[in-house]
Every structure is written in C-alpha cells, then in structure tokens.
Input
Amino acid sequence: QLQLQESGSGLVKPSQTLSLTCAVSGGSISSGGYSWSWIRQPPGKGLEWIGNIYHSGSAFYNPSLKSRVTISVDGSQNQFSLKVTSVTAADTAVYYCARDQVGTGFDSWGQGTLVTVSS
Amino acid sequence: EIVLTQSPATLSLSPGERATLSCRASQSLSSYLAWYQQKPGQPPRLLIYGASYRATGIPARFSGSGSGTDFTLTISSLEPEDFAVYYCQQRGNWALTFGGGTKVEIK
Output
C-alpha cells in the first residue's frame, strides 16, 4: 500500500524559506500515470493546491504562488520536495503531499505537517 | 483560475437523512470534478472522481452527479461517520482548485 510521509521544519521565520520533503514508500514515484502534489490548509480553513510535479520533472504551480514556489523530484530517493521563499504568517498551514492519479483525483495523502511562520 | 463555489456552507442533518451538497464552477469542467471528505485531524479522502465514479472502497450511499458547471454530491442516508467537511476539486485545467467546503453537522 502506498504511503506518503512529509518531513521538514515545523517553524520558519518570516522572510525565510520553507522546505519540506515527501517520502514515498510502497510504490515508485517514477510510475507513469501519476503526478505528485503539495496542498496546504491554513488552520480552520480550506484546501489550497500549491503545485505538482511529474516523474519527468515537469512542474506546474498555483499562479498565486508561482513566484515563490519550487517543487522538485528525486527518483533515486523516491521523494519529492517543496520550497517556498519569502514566507509570511499567511503561509502558516498544514502542508500535505499527495498522489494525483491523472484523470481521477488525489487518491493517496500524507498525514500532513504543520508549518508555523513566526519570529 | 477556475473558481468553485460550494453550497451550503453548513448542512445540519440527522443520521438517516439525505444530504445534498452543491458545487458550481465558474466555467465548464466537462466531468472533471472530484469530491473529498475530511474529518478533523485527518487528510482528505477521495470519494468521487469524474463527477460520478466512486473511488475504491467508498460506500454506495455516496453518489455524484452533474457536468459542465453544476455538480452534486448526495449521501443517501447519513451514517454517524459521515459528519465531516466535504470539498469539491476541479481538474478542468492544469491549475487545480478546491471549493471552500461544506460542513455536514449533526442536527
């Protein structure tokens, strides 16, 4: 069974860079037919798609975040990563990684990791 | 960006009742719409994809319908475990978006 696990810093200072990694187990991140996404959820609010990446390395980003976000993939480590630069308190959220089966939906999710932006 | 508007924001119902949730898109999605259920402290769970196809392991009381800009998630008879927040999500174009959510609460 596919499992995804987020890891990274839980506390980031304003103006610094948020960095998270999603480790994938029980399946290969290089499998065709899938993309790998980051999604976030501010406390008590709804879901926001941040962006996704294919095993080829092609990445797509939410236009509202595009200037600050980079998603990368490491097939040898079976993981993908997120970087968000110049963070503010508005970036405080639970960050989820998820697998998107092309044509269907996000069928596997990590448990999520809370990132707080505070000095 | 395709905007999804969910209604109502909150639905207060009793176990055994029928729940009808709406999701309206700002432009046509064909059938590229999914529904998710989220309980407190948990990640969302995929319920419906392609507007009307149940995901693996989802009970038959959950059904989806609609196409174009208007979609509906129906729970035919609410079980205690169905009280949660429900989100729709579009994949009509590459910039994926979610609706704001509908909370189904116990009346």
About this structure: DSSP finds no helices and eleven strands in chain A.
